[in-house]
Amino acid sequence: MTMPQPLRIGDAYNPDCPTRHILDRIGDKWAVLVLLTLKDGPARFNDLRRRIGAISQKMLSQTLKSLERDGLVSRAAFPTVPVTVEYRLTPLAGGLIRILDQVTQWAESHVGAIMAARRAHDGALADAMAA
Asked: What is the pLDDT along the chain (131 residues), one digit of tens a residue?
């Protein structure tokens, strides 16, 4: 019987590595969009859904629960009729938002080059398939 290897933090190639789990979370497009939307301030569920667009109610709910579990988003319920629920970034999310802002700026600066590379690649692929 093989003994399980001790978990090494930072071994992102190991599927059980905590670092990998966190990278998977912040690599998820919905999580990134929720975090970037909340950087403007607290928001209610339907406001988030409207601002993000193209996200289902189920996916937004799952994403918010995951982000809350990870300590990146907090949820506050207010005793109104019906209950008002508001989501906001936690202090832990602050450093991540700065990194996501840098990634967003890089993407906006390079989107033209990336789209041109895609068109060139797709054209070459189409030409090769036609030959």
From this structure: 566 556 566 676 777 788 888 888 888 999 999 999 999 999 999 999 999 999 999 999 999 999 999 999 999 999 999 899 999 999 999 999 999 999 999 999 999 999 999 999 998 888 888 87
Is-cis flag, bond preceding 42, omega within 30? no
Domains, the chain, in order of start with CATH, read: 18-130 (1.10.10.10)
